[in-house]
Write a structure and sequence with these properties.
It contains 11 helices and 13 strands. By secondary structure, it is of the alpha/beta class. It folds into 2 domains: 98 residues, Enolase-like, domain 1 (2-Layer Sandwich), CATH 3.30.390.10; 219 residues, Enolase-like C-terminal domain (TIM Barrel), CATH 3.20.20. The protein is globular. 44% of the residues are buried.
Length: 349
Amino acid sequence: MIASYSIHDLQFRKPAKTSRNTLETKRLYLLKLQNHAGLIGYGEISPFADLSIDDRPDFVQKLNQCIDLINEGAPLEDLDLDSWPSIAFGYDTALRDLANGGRQQFFTGSFADGIASIHINGLIWMASKKEMLSQVEEKIQQGYRCIKMKIGALDFDEECRLLEAIRKKYSAFQIELRVDANGAFPLSDALDMLKDLNRFELHSIEQPIRQGNWEHMAELCAKSALDIALDEELLGINPAMDGDRMLQVIQPKYLIIKPGLLGAFSVSAEWIKQAEAKHTAWWITSALESNLGLAAISQFASQYKNPLPQGLGTGQLYTNNIPSPLQINQGRLAQDGLEVWNFNLSLPE
């Protein structure tokens, strides 16, 4: 097997603002695995700046080392990818593609065959109150019935007024609202802020405080009437070894599974197993991957028949995404069968 990669900088249509940073580009390392028969499998290696545990200065050095080891025929364990989930995700994805004929069919089933679709949420990025309201209206007009909003960067009172404005027009029966704080709430004020947010009949809030504060998060989960979902809290934790203990301590209502940040798909599957053993609900979310990574994650998500809206609508964020058969219609993501993808992009070596 011959391994190589090319670099592609995905360009956001608009700067993507979170409580953590503002993104204008996202670097994609497009992994290519070719077997002796000439068959090619593709995988996405795309660490998330300031979030992925392998967003490190020596990332490219590690990636090049892995490419050399693969080309030398080294077994998977020699790659030592436990601390490099972005590379593990890309390698796993490319291997699955190769094993299924190089057709970008990473998981078989009715979604990959273009028959079934997945209910997804519409994502609202941080902006001014007026701009965010406009985004909400646009998503609702597009047929979304579940809206996810990034919060934590604006003035909190202004964010509450924004949610109030939405609820005055759309009831909880009409539109499900999720919010994501990306760990922005201060520990001392978090419980009071959750009480304020609960007035707006929200479905849930993702990661209200920074990860690693298990006792504080457990207190919030126990005392808050607003259901809490863990997101960043899962990063860097081995679900089979420490996931059970973390879930026992915190006891969240939901887990957010992000395969692109967790590593090989087996890690995400183990988190789902741990969640279901604790009767903790969950859904799967992409992490700003290109259409390639999004397709792999969506096909994985389709294996579980989870009725909750999944977070898989980010493929439309880029002006120069990889052309693919993924389509969104009326708040549902579908793949138009196993069409041939177009990888003839101008990717610098």
